[in-house]
Amino acid sequence: MMLSRTARIVLRLVMAFGLALIWLPLLVVAINSLNVDRAFGWPPRGLTLDWWRAAWGNAGARAALWTSLQAAAGATLVALVLGTMAAFAVQRYAFFGREAVSLLVVLPIALPGIVTGVALNTAFHGVLGIGLGLLTVIIGHATFCIVVVFNNVVARLRRSSPSLAEASMDLGADGVQTFRRVTLPAVRSALLAGGLLAFALSFDEIVVTTFTAGAGVQTLPIWIFANMARPNQAPVVSVVAVVLVVASIVPVYLAQRLSSEPTSSGLI
User: N or C: which end of the chain has fewer CB within 10 A?
Assistant: First the structure.
């Protein structure tokens, strides 16, 4: 479609405004993490790495980072297993209620986080009698991480032919060999992309975490929220926020690259 010069200029201006709206606040946080002024005077009188050293030496921030990594890794592992199984069931087999199952799998990511959090908290406490802790955080995060794995694998399966797996079976391969040599290479990049997106979603989640974490469990976003009102921690909070942004951007970028690349086998 050909656009007029005026339309192209307008689109570029709108795009620039949208990008500025998203990234300028993050840029301010990044600069404040280097600001020599503890009160974040603007413009900065100078830059320093002292706050980064203070953040690295902060035991609470390091413990929260380790908790976030554990929760994200656990939720991603659960999401990869359950999301992949659900994707194969929905895409490769015909059964009554298949569309309903697909909707139910995808629905959690569309629900408000506070609704999911309250529902999980009630289920853990009132129904199952499970104490809140790292395990409940992992389960809570997995409810929406499954969706991104499911969507990535389903999209890849739709573009791959099931006849290849059937041909492998006809040639004498069993189910495990067929999955390892035919099916897995076809969906490998989709699994990696889905896993990276799931990790990023879990790593920076705060609403569901608030309702599913016990008293002794504090992820990095929860640590930031708890220390925002403490003036002596403000510079350290900015540093941790920058780390959180970078830790979220990198997996999303890699997932985008993986999703856009065709598979080497030529099946997709």
Answer: N
Q: What is the DSSP letter of 39?
A: T
Q: Mean pLDDT, the chain, as a whole number?
A: 83
Report the predicted TM-score, pTM, of the whole model to 2 decimal places. Answer: 0.80
How many other C-beta atoms can be found within 10 angstroms of the C-beta atom of residue 24?
10
What are the structural domains of the chain? Answer: 33-260 (1.10.3720.10)
Residue 166 CA, distance from chain mean position: 34
Cα–Cα distance measured from residue 240 to residue 59, given in angstroms and rounded to the nearest whole number: 12
Task: Judge whether 134 and 217 are in contact, CB under 8 Å.
Answer: yes
Strand partners, 47: 35
Bridge partners for 35 per DSSP: 47
By CB neighbour count within 10 A (0-12 exposed, 13-18 middle, 19+ buried), where does 33 fall?
buried
Cα 83 to Cα 75, 187, 190: the distances in Å are 11, 13, 11
